[in-house]
Structures are given as C-alpha cells and as structure tokens.
Amino acid sequence: MPLASARDLREVSLTEAEYRRIVELLEREPNDLELGIFGALWSEHCGYKTSKRLLAALPSGGRAVLQGPGENAGAVDIGNGLAAVFKIESHNHPSAIEPYQGAATGVGGILRDVFTMGARPIAILDSLRFGPLGIPHNRYLFQGVVAGIGGYGNCFGCPTVGGEISFDEGYSDNPIVNAMCVGIVPHGRLRRARAEQAGDIVLLVGAATGRDGIHGATFASVEMDSTSAARRPAVQVGNPFLEKLLCEACLQLNELDDVVAIQDLGAAGLTSAASELAHRGGRGVEIDVAVVSRRERGMSAYEVMLSESQERMLVVVRPDGEARARAIFDAFELHADRIGTITPQQRLRVREGRALRADLPLRALIDAVPLRTPAAMAPVRRAVEVALPLDDPEDALLAMLRRPNLRSRRPVYRTYDHQVQNNTVLGPGGDAALLRVAGTSSGLALTTDGNPWYTSLDPYAGTQAAVAEAARNIVCTGARPLAVTNCLNFGNPERPQVFWQLRESVRGLADACRAFGLPVVSGNVSLYNETSGRNIPPTPVIGMIGLLEDLDRRCPSGFQEDGDVICLLGETREELAGSEYARLQGAPLQGLPPRVDLDAERRLQGALLEVIHEGSVRSAHDLAEGGLLVGLAEAALFGRHGVRCPALTGQVSAAALAFGESQGRVLVSAPPRRVPDVQKVMAAAGVPVHALGVVGGDELQVGPAVRIRLDRLREAWECAWDTP
Amino acid sequence: MKTGIVVFPGTWSDRDCAYALHDVLGEPVRYVGHRERDLGDLDLVILPGGFSYGDYLRCGAIARFTPVMEAVARFAQDGGLVLGICNGFQVLQEARLLPGALLRNASCEFRCEWVSLRVEQTWSAFTQGMRPGQVLSLPISHGEGNFYADPATLEVLQTNDRIVFRYATPQGQVAPQANPNGSTAGIAGICNARGNVLGLMPHPERACEALLGGSDGLVLFRAAVMALQAAAV
Amino acid sequence: MYQADVIVTLKPVVNDPQGSTIKSALHALGFTAVEDVRAGKLLRLTLDTDDRAEAAAMTESMARQLLANSVIEDFKISLVALEAPARSRRA
Amino acid sequence: MYQADVIVTLKPVVNDPQGSTIKSALHALGFTAVEDVRAGKLLRLTLDTDDRAEAAAMTESMARQLLANSVIEDFKISLVALEAPARSRRA
Ligand SMILES: Nc1ncnc2c1ncn2[C@@H]1O[C@H](COP(=O)(O)OP(=O)(O)O)[C@@H](O)[C@H]1O
Ligand SMILES: [Mg+2]
C-alpha cells in the first residue's frame, strides 16, 4: 500500500506504475522530498521520457564533433584550435503568461548553457511563432516577447543576429519562443560539467534562491499550508545584469585548473544540476540546503531543492582551489555558498543542517527513467491538387510582401543589438547571419528554420525541408554547413496524432541530417503545447551553424551590380500546397508540401559553394516562403538594385511559377562573363539553371505584367508590424 | 597615447573599444576596474557602452558613484581626455561632467542601426582634423539616448560651440526623420567647456573596419591621437 | 477631471533584481539601514470625467487590461479631483 | 522600522515618451477619456530605524544623491511606520 496518494502523484506528474517502480528501486517508500526529486528528474522536461527513444536515432557523431548531446550544449571544431558551442531551447509556457519575462529568462537560460561550457557567447538567434496579429492578445504576446528577448540580450551584451517569426492561428494563446545561443572556446578550455573526484567542493553562485518555478502546488502538505500556492511566483523577473557578471566570472574560473566543473541551474534547479554533475562523473553528491542563500524566509528543503530561480550556477572546485575561485567571485561582487561536496558513493544526499532529508541512488534517478512510447496514429491524408488563380501578379506581389509572414523583420531586429562584440559581418535581414571568428579570418554562419505549414501537411517531409532550408541559407553566405541543433515543439504526445507527428518529424530530421552528413549535437524538446484542447502545429525548429574558412569569400544575398545576370538554380514544380500564396488566397491547408529531394539539394548546395568560392557569383539568395517573385523582390531590396526580366515561363501554372515554394532553389547573380562558369558547374552537378534577367534600374520588372518601383516595393515590404 | 578603458559591472563595449584602439589602431590600452583610483599613466580614458549595473534605476546612476569616477573627475579636471560612449555618456552626465540627461527614446524602443552624424565643431580634442559639416556613419545601440537639456543649458552649449555631433541625413541635413531617438535639436554628442571631455551616443568602436560595415569611427579615435601629439609638442 | 495614480508593484514573492541592485548601491553609499528596496512604477493618468465612480472604474479596468500584469504585479489606485487646468478648459 | 515610498516623476517640462506611448495604447483600447499619462517610479524602502525624523532625513538624502536626478526629475517621499514583521523580529 503506497504512502503517496493519487493526488500527490498527480502533483509530481508520476503514474502509479512509476511510483511502484520507485519503491522497487529504493526497496522502500520515498519520503515527500524524495518523491518530489523523482518527479522532477523523471519528468518529461528532465527525463525526456517520451522522446528519448526517438532522439536516439539522430546522428550525432562525426569528425568535427567535440561534444554531442548530453552536456549543456553541443560543441564542434571550427578550426584554429577553436570550438563552437551551441544549443537551442524553448520557453513557450512562461512566455504565454508573461511574454516579456518569459522570453527574457529563456534567453538567460540558453546563454548559461553556453558559458557553462567555458565558451564566450557570441550570438543569439530567436525563432518565434504567434497567432495572427489581428487579435490584440497575440499582438501583446508578440510585442512582449520581442521586447523581452532584446531586453535580456542587449543588457547582457551578446548580439542577436538572426531568427525567424511566423504567424498562424495554430499559435493563438500558445506562442513558440525558442532561443539559440552560440559561443566560442579554445578546444583545451571546453568544459564538461562532470565531477569525478570525491572530496571536491560544491559552490552555489549567483542569485539567491526563491520559491520560483516549483511544481506540485499543494504537494508535501505536511510542510506547506494552504497559502503556499500564493507564495509561488508563476514567472520570474530576469536579471541579465547578474547573468553578465556570472558569465565573466565563469569564463575566468574556466581558466583555473582547480575548477573541475561548472553547471548552470535550469529545470528542477539544484536537484537536477547536482545530480547530473555527479552522475556524469560516476560520483555522488551531498548537499546541505540550510546553507543556501534564500530570498525568502521559511523555505523548506523541498522548495530549496526544486526551486528554479534563474541566474544561478554550481561550481565544483578542488579544496585547494576554493580560495582562488572565491577571489574571482569577490571581484564580481558575487556571493558563493559552499553547499556540499562530491562523494564516492553514487548517491544524492540532501541534508538540512544535521538532518538527512533525502538519500537516493543516482542511477535510479537518472538512468532508470521509465520511458514511454505512446500510441501513434497517422491522420488520414489525401493528395489534393492545389490549383490557384493568379489574376494580377503586381497586386499579388505587393500583397505578399505585406503579409506578416513575409514583410521585413527590420522593425524587430533593430530593437536587438546585433553588433556588439564587433564580429557581425552579415547581420539579420539576409539568409543566414555571418560572424567573424575573432582573431581569425574565418566566419561562422548561423540560422534557424522551420515551416509549420509543411510540417502540418507532412511532419516527415516538412522537417526534412527545414534541414534543407537551413543548410541552403548557410550555403548562400558561402559557408559550409557544419552541425545542427533543434527544438521540437509539439502538442500533447498522449494524443496519438501528436505522437505520430513527433515521431515522423524526428525521423525526417534524422534522415535529412544523415543525407547531409550533419551531426545533431544538441537540442531541446517542448511537449504539451496544448491550450484548451487545441494543439499547436508540429513545430520542429532547426538551428544550424556553418563554417566559412575565408571571410573574403563570403556572399551577400542582395543584387550587387547593374548588368549582372540573374539565374534561378533548381527546379520549379507545381507546388502550392502550404504556401504563403495559398494562405493569401484563403485556400485551406491541404495537399502535400513541396517535395524534398535530398540528393538534388546536396548537389545544388555543393555546386553553389563551388561557384561562390571561385568568385563566379556576386549574390545568392535562397527561395523559401513566397517563392520566386518574392525572392526577386527581396534580393532587389536587399541590394538596392532593380531587376529586368522577361515574362517568366515554365511547365507549371502562373501561380506556381510566381509564388510556388518548390524546394532546392536559389537565386544568384553573376557578371555576364562568369555565367558560363556557373552553367558549367551546375551542369556537372545536374542542377538546372534558368537565366531570368538582368540587374539594373530602379524597378522590379518581370514581363509586361509586373513593373513596380523599388520604393513602392519597399513601402509594402517595410510596412508597420501592427498592420494586420 | 595610452588609453584606459573603464569596466563597470555590466559594461560590455570594453572589449570592442580595446579591439578598435589596440587591434586596429595599434595603440596601447589597459582595462581600468571600477574600484581603481589611479589613472596616472593614461592619456585617454574611455567610459564604454553597456548596461552598467543593469541600467537599473537610471542609466549610469549607480556607476557614477564607483571609486573610479572620482579619479575620472580629477583626470578630466587636469585636462586628460575623457570619452564617454553610449552608457559612458550617461555616466558622465550623472556625474555632472557633462550637462543634460538622456531620456528614453521617443519610440520607447531600443534602436540598433547605422546613423549619419554631422560634425558641428572641430575645436574639441576629438574633432580636430575633421571638417565642419563632415558626415560620419556610425552605429547606435541604445534605448535611452534622447538628449535633454533645459533651455538655458542648451543656450550655453550652443553659444560655446559645444554641440559636437548631430543626427543628420546621409547628405548632412539635420532633420526629424534622421533623428533616431527624439534628441533635442538632434544632438548626438556634446563636450565640456574645455573640449577634453566628449560624450556621444553612437559607437565609434563598432565602425573601424570595412568588413563590419564602415570605418568612420577611426576618424574620431585618430583625432584624439592627434590632439595628444599636438599637446605633447 | 480626475488624476488617477496607479502604483504598480511586483508581487512580494517575485524577485526584484532592480530593487536588490539599488539596495546594494545604497549600502555602498553608506545607507546601511536600508533593509529592503522594491522598485515599482507610477502611472499618473489625467481623466476627462467629473464622475468619481466612473474614473475609478475606468482606471481599475485600464490597470487590469494594460498597466499591470497580474501574473507578477499588483496595483493600487488613488484618485484626486482636479481643477481643470487652463489648457483644457473649453471656451 | 519604517517604510519609505519615494515617488520619482519627470519634471513637468520634460517630455515623457513612455507616458505618451501608454496613452496611445490606452486610446487604442478605447479609453479615450485619458487626457494625459505620465510615467514615474516608485522606490519602496524598508528602513531599520524607529525614529521618524531619522527615516525622513535618510530618505531625503538618498533621493537627492541617487534615487532621483534633479536635472530631469522631482521626488516625493511618504513614510509609514511598520510593524516589524514576524520574520525579522529578533529573539
Ligand atoms: N526573430 C528574429 N530575430 C532576429 N532576426 C530575425 C528574426 N526573424 C527574422 N529575422 C531575420 O530576418 C531575415 C528574414 O527572415 P525569414 O523571412 O525568416 O528568412 P528565411 O526565409 O531566409 O529564413 C533573416 O535574416 C532572419 O535572421
Ligand atoms: Mg532563407
């Protein structure tokens, strides 16, 4: 007869079977604190119990990989003895209830994951999804989230250089807020959060601990009275200033040989950070919660262990190194509590002064997480032909450029400091951002991508498309794709259709990454994005980094010189399902998304890199949402050069030609005498090339039907955000 | 020329300033911590951009009480060159080394973008060698750069030729559409009566290489080098 | 005309980084008797109504909808009847 | 113990971008009776003294030195004696 009531179990999100398993593992009943600790570590968030089996299929190895999934962030070699450390993470739920602070603390969390590894954060990217702007609450969420991301990143001093924003009904009330961070560290200083030596000292540094983010509202009723729910803040106020100090302190600590591990506190706070740190090193840890600095009086051991207060770090030092470490904290006016030690037995022991409050085997807590494989069910789908009219291409183009999903993101990214640290070569606004690797002549290209409409129509193909598009964005700058991080935002996996979406999406991610030879080195899963029974569209977000060895070979996305010839690389098919044009026309979301031909995509990208590096092309811009006419308009606006093209021709309908979203296509411009070089390389790779027209003038002119002055185009494209 | 770059808790342009002066211009630099009191070896002191103390309460309000600021005040008094960039400008105002205050941008939003500045005077230590009316292209990055001074102070700034930079169109026209933050009279930078203390909102240290979009920031740093050389002769 | 002051404060349980930073600054200045600092906002509204109840209801509603976020903030309203200032007097 | 509320407001001659932005937002929500909005700050200090005069003098001095910038801001202080809350009572 278990001690824990059904209610207690619900509050720690454990099933009865899981409870029985715990009793079996412990060979006794857990106490309240212990049950809370299990609940936290066996949660979806920490234990990945629904997704772990699926994620195992992702390719994560490779020559460049220095650290795959499993640490705070992944790391890859970028030459010159340096490593890029990066990861993406979601903060959807907090952002839904307090958009500014929710997004801000999301940025804070991902920054910590990177500097915890000893790397200096050099870039932030944000991938955002909201419901339509016409609804005031969505506008409020949008404005708050954007302000929160800027508020944290700007104050911290890390440039926000890229990201994406899209709008769809499926995100009303449940915005998606994913933040990616990239950092750089010399190989030898890459730090893993593992404590391998018993006797080492555990310090807790940074903010005082409050009752933040503790779940199980009325759990452990013995310790808490009925007012305890009111004592728990639902959202925290981010402190980017403190985080900046923590970062600088950690980077200095990272230079000390006596510092053996640095670990940030995230989900499940001290419990998870201390357990993982010790477990990775094959050791145990003993903590005295009485020593932890608190923001409030009367906090229980349970509250201290499970608090998710932000801007805190665990630092493990050799006993001899404590004084040196403290000197660094003092210099930054940070206080550090000596909360415990690393122990030889692989157990988590929690004391409160003299009293032993919890004593649990780490293997049971971490390795024994019971995995779940919920039922999966594919929806019934039919291949529907999507045919759409195109009456007035000029009006249609202007209307497309005004669409919230396509219009210029400048009103957003100009509120983000995207230049601090003096390395931003190509900032937000083009295909991928390009940053100089300080002290070298090489660059890192960064992007995030994901198209919720394609993944709604087919999560497998849609996720492949996202990987392909991310790689294409990177290649357009001249960089070679190197590695992937990803954030899987899905609905409630206990619903068979949602679990099917998740499974298909991960399969698509794995297959595409394998085809491109790209390792997935980090990522994050956000499930249960369900509001009043409505699940969000399947939303995998791909973050990718690429390397450009010689920055002088970079390629801009806008047209550069009058007289250059504009070529379309790749094949245009009759593909309008899931397109922005279909949404403009009010067509229902149905049919099959654009086909992804991974082999063709690889050949295209290889050939494109070749022509960029040999200097044959002066610009490259990938075609994505909005298709060819939108891509032409963007390249004209980016480069401030007009375009003259004869009427578009092809085997497909006028609408598909103008606005279809066939994958694997790029617009390049080349000086006339280099066009044969482009054609030769493309022919060798089997990539179709269509010469579309020439750069020049101050109009976008495509056949007799489209003739728009650039300033009119810009006016449409740069319309204000609150225009619905 | 030996440059000291002050680092307050929360400062972040310190490294960018060091990069501009040391890596690009080859000048010796050292960082100066907020508790230091000795600037004896320095010719130029930069208060860089960032969010000192998180910009909590008011930008620069807490930083101005740090020990280093007493030293900076003395250093300025003795004629040393002091350059406050962005948050550094705010600190100089809070410390009353420069007049006025910087309010929230009129848009109430942070702005990070390139702007054009018109050079309004060429007698200060940081503008010697520039042409009056010359247009510089520099990035801004701030949420509170909306210059305010009461009419009497404005009058003094005006008549003593202490308005150093104004936001302008690329053609050099001071106009509302070229003003990114609502600053009174388009003011982007001012100096003290002696011309040895300059505060400005834009970031010259971010404009030192064509690779990153432009190098007009060097004009300002070079002017400081020249002023010091001239003083040494 | 009414003047409505809406004071928005962080709920006591929510952390206040600004308040704690200001507290440290005050201590550094020697004001060590300061035990705690919490930072809040004041929004001072001028309302074109002479009906106190209406002013109160309106302000309450604005505070709920826009001026405060009940997830992390509390608010308090105080009203004062104003002499209509010269500039808004109608001929 | 005293609680000192320091209300910091922009001087009337200084324009207030935040206030105007909030005013527009309120108008957009239909609160068209709002004639003016001014944004200010509240700093709520808890002072470890039982001497009202001392609390007042200390607060005045903190406001002058740090909490308000006289170039652009005015301040107003109000004091309330506090029951020492249970948590800080010493045995
Ligand atoms: N949330 C954001 N933060 C920063 N930059 C953004 C954001 N959203 C979009 N951008 C930038 O705007 C540009 C255009 O975005 P998008 O239309 O999504 O491009 P693409 O289709 O090439 O991925 C990209 O450079 C992107 O980095
Ligand atoms: Mg793109």
Explain what you see.
The complex is a heterotetramer, with 1 copy of chain A (724 residues), 1 copy of chain B (233 residues) and 2 copies of chain C (91 residues). Chain A is of the alpha+beta class. Chain A contains 24 helices and 28 strands. In chain A, the strands form 5 sheets. Chain A has a 7-stranded mixed beta sheet with strand order 8-10-7-11-9-12-13. Chain A has a 7-stranded mixed beta sheet with strand order 23-25-22-26-24-27-28. A 6-stranded mixed beta sheet of chain A has the order 1-2-3-6-4-5. In chain A, helix 7 packs parallel to helix 8 (136-156), helix 7 packs parallel to helix 9 and helix 17 packs parallel to helix 18 (496-516). The model of chain A is unreliable at 216-228 (pLDDT under 50). With 233 residues, chain B is an alpha/beta fold. Chain B has a single domain (3-232), classed as 3-Layer(aba) Sandwich (Rossmann fold). Chain B has 5 helices and 11 strands; from the N terminus they run βαββαβαββββαβββα. Chain B has helices at residues 14-24, 67-77, 87-94, 151-159, 217-232, and strands spanning 3-7, 29-33, 44-47, 81-85, 101-103, 111-119, 135-142, 146-148, 163-168, 187-191, 197-200. In chain B, strands 2-1-3-4-11-10-9-6-7 form a 9-stranded mixed beta sheet, sandwiched between helices. In chain B, strand 3, helix 2 (67-77) and strand 4 (81-85) form a beta-alpha-beta unit. Chain C has 91 residues and is an alpha+beta fold. Chain C is built from 2 helices and 3 strands; from the N terminus they run E-H-E-H-E. Chain C has helices at 17-28, 52-67, and strands spanning 2-10, 34-47, 73-81. In chain C, 38% of the residues are buried. Chain C binds chain D through residues 1, 7, 9, 19, 22, 25-26, 29, 31, 33-49, 58, 61-62, 65-67, 88, and chain D through 1, 7, 9, 19, 22, 25-26, 29, 31, 33-49, 58, 61-62, 65-67, 88. Strand 2 (34-47) of chain C pairs antiparallel with strand 2 of chain D. The site of adenosine-5'-diphosphate (ADP) has 18 residues of chain A, from strand 4, strand 5 and helix 15.
